[in-house]
Design a protein that fits this description.
Layout lengths: L1 H17 L9 E3 L8 E3 L1 H9 L3 H15 L3 E7 L3 E6 L1 H14 L13 E5 L11 H19 L3 E8 L4 H17 L14 H13 L8 H26 L6 E4 H6 L2 H11 L3 E4 L2 E4 L10 E4 L7 H14 L4 E7 L6 H10 L7 E6 L2 E5 L2 E2 L12 H8 L1 H9 L7 E4 H5 L6 H21 L19 H11 L1 H11 L3 H20 L8 H25 L8
Parallel strand pairs: 5-6, 5-11, 6-7, 11-12, 13-15
Antiparallel strand pairs: 1-2, 2-4, 3-4, 8-9, 9-10, 13-14
Helix pairs in contact: 1-3, 2-3, 4-17, 4-20, 5-18, 6-7, 6-8, 7-8, 10-11, 13-14, 16-19, 16-20, 17-19, 17-20, 18-19, 19-20
This protein binds one RNA strand through strand 9, strand 10, helix 11, helix 16 and helix 18.
Length: 551
RNA sequence: GCGCUCGUAGCUCAGUUGGAUAGAGCGAUAGCCUCCUAAGCUGUAGGCCGCAGGUUCGAUUCCUGCCGGGCGCACCA
């Protein structure tokens, strides 16, 4: 935010003149209470000891200096235990509109990420069945996080890891194969573990229709063929669901391909080089315990096959080899026990601790009219993502998923999400945008024309406390995005948008724009609203939610 | 049993990485359209921030210990 920068620069100069060092814990942040001005800093409290004077006095001194030095600072004083509160002039805040116009779609972007190369991996559901709502939440969070990090100046690539090599795939093949045998009227004995969804039967039936001799194949070949077909079909469905949900993965990364190209050996070598692997009881182990895990883990089992952990390590090793500085994984919260293990692997690969982050996604409780909807995969009665999207729409679903901290459980009420009412926050925000666009359209109809580029003089009519509240909120957008990116927490953006929409609706109720009875004021307010609409649109874009022209 | 995580208004949740008198929505309740979109706005009520210690100028936030909920503890993925 311009205000933060202005204050930071000025304060730094003052500290230098006073011969004081800039304390690392210095905070410059918007005041919670408007009475405390626009921004406040705790610098005086941190420096009181060093400067040998009481914090109140020091804050007073800083305040006086700021007033002398910055023409944009209208008021500055000491308050409370030693805060220095600063209020900027109205003219300063009005210029925010010009900033928005100049940056347009890029408003809110920052260089916080400094171009760091990030690989964001998300969803990565096994291709053994359609995506359900839980995957949907991970998809929404992952996709929006990618958008957010890009805004914050990171170079982000996105990836979906396909577990197409392990036991789950064999089980999928077996499940379809057995269904096919059953459909062909052959005797079938069902194992304890297999996939029971309707879609398995559909695939088996389609295969049987295409080739009635399928059941005559030798077991191994039949199962292999079933597996291939089922995986392709399911993966196609997953891609279609994600695309419908406006979720994009730039690369689909195959576990099988990784294993076949020797990625596992490369990773094992890397771990071995740092001395963390050993053989015991016919198996190949990774000494994760000394790296913070509960116990050591097996990489290659005594029967010679690889564990899931082994190929996953190889995958992460490969990501680093491809030149990414930072890996972010989005996992279901039920995998949180897996984090220390993976962290151990990162350490053993001699990568810095902050080069790997996991964002955990908690359970989604799907409700209908307050009553839980069963989501058991085994029983085959789960609610698919596609079904939910059909029912509530992409915008409502995305906003719902993104409105809460991702690692706390989410109640998703289908009826509520479907409602076009104030209970449904997505419409509250979208309505704010649509309202502004309606006013701008109406203005054009009336022949009130706002130039594409407005001047500072034109904004002079913005002088009420509601004008200032909106301007300050708009100005805080960049900081909000940067903080959200830093915390890997997209929900901050949703909250910001709800707040901005709230201010807009209040403003709209209190101040007339076209009927202001004063052309200069009308134009100034139109310019302000247009800037607000731009920010709403930019924010909604981060969430992957549309910004409608009318509702 | 061990580990992770959460505990904030009647309900669902925020809380800007330790700041000043703890916020929002819903619900309850009292109001607001001759006026640019009422899918909106305004007011009121509602709190031992799970409990007890500690760290310091200052704790809902950090540390420790309890209490209570969720999850995880495989040569599964």
């Amino acid at each position: 935010m311009r205000a933060t920068e202005t204050l930071r620069t000025a304060l730094a100069a003052i500290l230098k003149e006073e011969g004081l060092a800039w304390p690392a814990k210095t905070a410059i942040e918007p005041s919670r209470d408007p009475k405390h001005g626009d921004l406040s800093t705790n610098a005086a409290m941190l420096l009181a000891k060093e400067a040998k004077c009481n914090p109140r006095e020091l804050a007073r001194k800083f305040a006086d200096r700021l007033l002398e030095r910055c023409p944009d600072v209208e008021k500055a004083d000491a308050a409370g235990p030693g805060f220095c509160n600063v209020t900027f002039s109205q003219a300063f805040w009005r210029r925010t509109v010009l900033d928005v116009e100049a940056a347009a779609g890029a408003y809110g972007s920052s260089g916080a990420g400094a171009g760091r190369k990030v690989l964001l991996e998300y969803v990565s559901a096994n291709p053994t069945g359609p995506l359900h709502v839980g995957h949907g939440r991970g998809a929404a969070v992952g996709d929006s996080l990618a958008r957010l990090l890009r805004k914050a100046g990171y170079a982000v690539d996105t990836e979906y890891y396909i577990n197409d090599a392990g036991r789950q795939m064999r089980l999928l093949g077996l499940s379809v194969w057995l269904r096919a045998l059953e459909l062909a009227g052959r005797p079938v004995s069902w194992p304890e573990d297999y996939y029971r969804g309707e879609y398995i039967i559909d695939i088996a039936r389609a295969m049987l229709d295409a080739d009635p001799h399928l059941p005559d194949l030798p077991e191994t070949e039949g199962q292999e063929r079933c597996c291939q077909r089922a995986m392709n079909e399911i993966l196609t469905g997953i891609k279609a669901d994600l695309s419908e949900f406006r979720v994009e993965h730039q690369r689909w990364f195959s576990e099988k391909t990784l294993v076949e190209s020797g990625g596992v050996d490369a990773a094992f070598n890397a771990l071995g080089r740092s001395g963390y692997t050993y053989g015991k009881e016919n198996a190949f182990w990774f000494a994760t315990e000394q790296l913070g895990d509960d116990k050591d883990r097996v990489l290659k089992k005594s029967d010679g096959s690889l564990t899931y952990f082994a190929t996953d390590i190889a995958y992460h090793h490969d990501k680093f080899e491809r030149g990414y500085d930072r890996l972010i994984d989005i996992w279901g919260a039920d995998h949180h026990g897996y984090v220390p293990r993976m962290r151990a692997a990162i350490t053993a690969m001699e990568r810095p601790r902050d080069s790997f982050d996991v964002v955990l996604i908690q359970l989604v409780n799907l409700l209908r009219d307050g009553k839980p909807v069963s989501m058991s995969t085994r029983a085959g009665t789960f609610e698919t993502l596609a079904g939910v999207l059909r029912e509530v729409g992409v915008d409502a679903a995305r906003f719902m998923f993104l409105s809460r901290k991702s690692d706390s459980p989410l109640d998703f009420d289908l009826e509520l999400a479907k409602q076009r009412s104030l209970d449904n926050p997505v419409y509250y925000v979208q309505y704010a945008h649509a309202r502004i666009r309606a006013v701008l359209r109406r203005a054009a109809e009336r022949g009130v024309s706002l130039p594409d580029a407005v001047s500072e003089e034109m904004l002079a009519g913005l002088d009420t406390s509601e004008d200032m509240a909106l301007l300050r909120k708009v100005a805080a957008f960049e900081d909000t995005l940067a903080a959200a990116a830093q915390a890997l927490a997209v929900h901050h953006v949703s909250h910001y948008l709800s707040e901005l929409a709230g201010l807009l609706h209040s403003y709209y109720a209190k101040h007339q724009v076209l009927l202001a009875g004063d052309t200069a004021r009308t134009l100034a307010r139109l310019a302000l609203l247009r800037a607000v609409a731009q920010v709403l649109r930019n924010g909604l874009e981060v969430l992957g939610v549309s910004a409608p022209e009318s509702m």
